[in-house]
Design brief:
The structure is a single chain. This protein has 2 domains: 46 residues, no CATH class; 208 residues, 3-Layer(aba) Sandwich (Rossmann fold), CATH 3.40.50.150. A hairpin with a 2-residue loop joins strand 11 and strand 12. It starts with a helix and ends with a helix. Helices cover 35% and strands 19% of the residues. The strands form 3 sheets. An 8-stranded mixed beta sheet has the order 5-6-4-3-7-8-12-11, sandwiched between helices. By secondary structure, it is α/β, with parallel strands linked by helices. It is built from 12 helices and 12 strands.
Length: 344
């Protein structure tokens, strides 16, 4: 598997960068291929900072300030994981489940939870025969929200619906959606380093699935889509995703961390690839500045061909982050009014 990860990573680097990463995501060393080759760390990558900034479990209960979270490459190559405060993780999960009561059940968590791959800091859940980790349980919430959108019509009439995720973390959400919708095709657009981590995670999560990356798709994305269950692409290849191919697109908590120019570029991609009557789920902060720009949700440059599926929804555990559920097609004045209200 590491050979395939490295082949895709090198192909993605040869394609080049689509745009500047911004301050928030300019965190990977130029010799990231050195980590890919370090076989011992991958079975424990979620304990060790490899998924830093795209795995919130690493931020919870490790007793370290955010500036100190990323271990040195030497520590990673020694495969020495950090120690986590399990009680702090339990408290955060309990608080989360209290806040999403009525929106997410423990039965849904038990069905979709995955706490094995990468040896995450999972903890036993009191009074339940279940272990969970903080990032994974939040991904269960989003998977159930997206399943509802598919049921509302995104891809519901197609033999094989297509999901596009921009900024997909280590791949957990896509894997959960495939468990809920087994014939789903997932396209993940991300940085080459993150694509490499996704390749490892998804290959472990669903060994029988066809996981393809930049090496297979570089010359012909459409041909790769004929075979892929998961297609992992660097952002620079977004323009090769066929127009009107996607039933449901999503960006969850990462547009807010990108430069404004990158957000605008991705939104143009979404508007090109989502089918008429397809949907876009966008959950981001009202305002954030870690990219170096002031990025405001109410100022995202959506065109006029969107309507609201439901009113904007602040996340119950992060009310400064608001989820927009949009449908592509006839213009609706509710979206512009909703965006204006977010900047008021």
């Amino acid at each position: 598997m590491l050979r395939e990860m490295l082949k895709d990573f090198e192909a993605a680097k040869q394609v080049g960068e689509r745009s500047a990463r911004g301050a928030h995501w300019d965190i990977f060393r130029p010799d990231f291929d050195r980590l890919i080759r370090t076989e011992a760390l991958w079975p424990r990558f979620r304990q060790m900072g490899v998924s830093y900034r795209f795995d919130d479990s690493f931020h919870t209960g490790n007793g370290r300030g955010k500036r100190d979270m990323l271990p040195s490459y030497a520590a990673l190559e020694e495969a020495k994981p950090w120690r986590f405060d399990g009680r702090a993780v339990q408290i955060r999960i309990a608080d989360f489940m209290e806040k999403v009561a009525g929106l997410l059940s423990w039965e849904e968590v038990a069905f979709l939870s995955e706490c094995r791959i990468g040896s995450p800091p999972a903890v036993p859940i009191e009074d339940r025969d279940l272990k969970a980790d903080w990032n994974d349980i939040s991904q269960v919430f989003f998977a159930m929200q997206l399943k509802k959108l598919f049921e509302l019509g995104a891809g519901g009439r197609d033999a094989r619906p297509v999901f596009l995720e921009i900024g997909a973390g280590y791949g957990s959400l896509a894997a959960k959606l495939r468990k809920l919708i087994p014939n789903l095709q997932c396209i993940l657009l991300d940085l080459p380093e993150v694509n490499a981590v996704q390749r490892y995670y998804l290959s472990e999560a669903e060994p029988g699935a066809t996981v393809l990356g930049a090496a297979a798709a570089r010359d012909d994305v459409a041909a790769a889509l004929d075979h892929a269950d998961y297609l992992l692409l660097p952002a620079a290849m977004a323009g090769q995703v066929p127009a009107g191919h996607v039933d449901l697109a999503a960006n969850i908590r990462s547009f807010m961390e990108m430069p404004i120019s990158v957000v605008a570029d991705y939104i143009r991609t979404v508007q090109r690839v989502v089918k008429s009557n397809g949907q876009f789920f966008c959950a981001n902060a009202l305002e954030k500045t870690t990219s170096g720009d002031v990025v405001r949700l109410g100022e995202y440059p959506f065109d006029e061909n969107w309507s609201m599926v439901s009113p904007p929804m602040p996340l119950p555990w992060q009310p400064h982050i608001v989820a927009l559920s949009l449908r592509r097609g006839a213009a609706g004045d509710r979206l512009r009014a909703a965006l204006d209200s977010l900047t008021a």
